[in-house]
Amino acid sequence: MAKKKKDLRRENIIEIAAQLFKQKGFSGTSMRDLAEQVGMDAATMYHYISSKDEILKTICFGIATTYITQLGEIESSDSSYIEKLKALVRLHLHLMTTKGAEVSVANNDWKYLSPEALQEFKDLRSHYEKRFASLIEEGIQAGELQEVNRSVALFTLLSAVRWVELWWKPNRGITLEELENTILTILFNGLEKKQP
Amino acid sequence: MAKKKKDLRRENIIEIAAQLFKQKGFSGTSMRDLAEQVGMDAATMYHYISSKDEILKTICFGIATTYITQLGEIESSDSSYIEKLKALVRLHLHLMTTKGAEVSVANNDWKYLSPEALQEFKDLRSHYEKRFASLIEEGIQAGELQEVNRSVALFTLLSAVRWVELWWKPNRGITLEELENTILTILFNGLEKKQP
After folding, report:
1. Of the partner residues A85, A136, A193, the one whose CB lies closest to the CB of residue B144
2. Which of B147, B167, B183, B189 has its CA 20 to 30 A from that of A111?
């Protein structure tokens, strides 16, 4: 029970850290800023977390692991390639709208990871991209997808959703459903209306 | 003649500055770095350019003006809305692949503009986005485009091409034609292959 409470506190500190890193950048945030925002004195906070580097590592690997675990589930499902790719785009949107600060840190501040962690993180990302690209490749082979350049398609999909991280907020008058529908429509059916 | 030579030198300095800002960031680049890269002593360089701020302003407003001028030409053409929007996406790709460093600076370092220039730049950008969104709106009204959320469509199009600035290089085995075809296919026709 004591363990669990400690874990929750730790998670809460990491969440607040992610928001600070997103606002002020990893380099621009000090442990003192964090302690202040958390409402603890620094000495107490070090009981939960040992360093800024540890926080960054926890955030980046937490996000990378979520992506890879979910990708595994999507790959092993019975769906068509189109459905699998749609599920991946939805996963990106879902993480950006529910864990926006963490995703932003993993997208922008990963370069401040310590050298060893940095290499591991890059490998995970490249592994994820390769498996994502394979789904595109297999979908084309199966005749479900248009004949496009695989790498260009991969980066176009990944990039088309990136703005959401910077821009989307629940109170801007666009629902999550509208967001998802418009993006999926454009990427999979195209903006041009097909004449009946 | 003397004037023209001075202009060319100035343009060359600004081009090299854009590459340095892209590599090392605006804050991370000093006028000394620039002079070294240009191969001039600093005193001579100041004959062509007065400050880092002036360079940044020239780059950002140069890019913004190009976008707005081209948008004007596209708007006033006789093409369909689909063709106009495709021409805008091509314009973004064209600028990113021919003026990659300048576009990158205008996309990332504009926040270091002096307060007055900053406001003017933001106004230009917002003006461009509004006119781009109007083309989407009018295309939907004309029945050429799918019924999508206008803002989401705008940011999805603008964002889908952003990765090109960071990733595309002529020697990576993907031609400009493949790049353009794949991106236009995905955004306007969709990745899903239509069954005949």
Report:
1. A193
2. B183
CA distance A169 to A171: 5
Residue A6 has pLDDT above 60, yes or no: yes
pLDDT at B195 over 80: no
Q: Residues B41-75: pLDDT tens digits?
A: 889 999 999 999 999 999 999 999 999 999 999 99
- Cα maximum dimension of chain A: 68
Q: Does domain A52-189 correspond to CATH entry 1.10.357.10?
A: yes
Give the residue from A70, A98, A96, A94 showing the smallest Cα distance to A84. A70
Nearest to B165 by CA among B24, B20, B22, B1: B22
Q: 3-state SS of A133-162?
A: HHHHHHHHHCCCECCCCHHHHHHHHHHHCH
**A36 CB-contact burial (10 Å; exposed 0-12 / middle 13-18 / buried 19+):** middle
Q: Give A185's contacts in chain B (Cβ within 8 Å).
A: 146, 148, 190
Q: How many residue pairs bridge chain A and chain B with CB atoms within 8 Å of each other?
A: 132
CATH 1.10.10.60 occupies which residues in chain B?
Answer: 1-50
